[in-house]
Amino acid sequence: MTTAARAAPLKLAITTGEPAGVGPELTAIALAGAAAHWPGVFFEVLGDAGLIESRARAVGVDWAALLAAGQVSVAHRPLAVPAQAGRLDAANGRYVLDLLDAAIDGALGGVFDAIVTAPLQKSTINDAGVAFTGHTEYLAERTSTARVVMMLTGTGARPLRVALATTHLPLKDVPGAIDIDSLVETIAIIDHDLRRDFGLPVPRILVTGLNPHAGENGYLGREEIDVIAPALALAAQRGIDVRGPYPADTLFQPRYLDEADCVLAMFHDQGLPVLKYATFGAGVNITLGLPIIRTSVDHGTALDLAGTGRADAGSMIAAIDTAVTMARNRRGG
Q1: Which is the CATH superfamily of the domain at 149-288?
Q2: Is 122 annotated as belonging to a binding site?
Q3: Is 136 annotated as a binding residue?
Q4: Which of 24, 129, 189, 213 could lock 289 by a disulfide, CB 3.0 to 4.6 Å apart?
C-alpha cells in the first residue's frame, strides 16, 4: 500500500437495516458523536433519507446539522413502501438487501474501508421471496468466499471473543457439519484475521468439544476423538497456538479465558449465550475470512423499541469502533 493510501481518511458504510426496527435511529444516535469518537473518519449511511431523518428527529438528533458538518453523508435508497416503526412489511424486504448489496459492492470496489450493518429481519426478507439465512452467509455468497467465520466480541483491554464452527443450523445437523478439514480452515481463518485485523502477534485459541464433558473419553460421543482433536493437531502443525477440546461448561471461566484471545465453539447456542450474557448491549458481531471488513451489532431489530428513543446505541458504537480499529490495522497503522 502506498504512503498516500495509508494517509487517506477512512470511509465506512453503515447499512440501516430493517426499516421497521431500531437500525435507523441507532445509526443516528451513534453518529451524533462521530466528531468526538472518530475524528477524521467519514461515514456514508445507506438507507431512505426521509426515514433516517424522521427517526433521528424522534430520538433528538439534529440530523441536518450532522450532515452539514461534513463527516456524515447519506446514500439515498428509497423504501418500497412507507415504513412504520415496529410494523414489518415484506414489501421492504428487497430494500434491505439493496442496502447490503450497495455496501458490499462499495467495499469490494475500494470505496469503503469497512461496512457496519444495523440489524435486519430475516423473516421479512424470506417473506419477500428471497431465501435468506443471515448476514454472515449472504456476505460469503456475495463476496464468493468459500468459508467465513462468525465471531462475536466484547469490549475492553482483553475482550472475550467467541467464534463459531457452525452458525445457523438446526442442532440435529451440527455433528454432520463438523469435519477435520473445515475445522482446520476455520481455525486458520481465526488465527490469520486476529493477527492482521486485531494486531495479535500469536493468538491463543481455545476450542470447545461438541458433546457434554467433551465426550467423556468417548462415552458421550466420539467427535472429540475422531474429528476435533485431529483438527487441532493439524492446526498446531501450521504454527497456530490452539488448545482443546475443552468441556464447554467449564471453559468459560477466568482461569482459561484470562490467557485466551478467542474461544471457538462448535455451534451457535454453545458459545453465544455466554458471550451475550457477559457483553450484551456492547458486543460486536464480526465476519472473519472475508476480503472486506464487516461488523455489526449483537442484537436484533428490537421492534418493540423502534421509534421510542429507548434503544441503547452501545453495540452500534462498539461495532463502529471495532470496524475503525480493524481498518486501521489492515492498512498497517
Answers
A1: Isopropylmalate Dehydrogenase (3.40.718.10)
A2: no
A3: yes
A4: 189
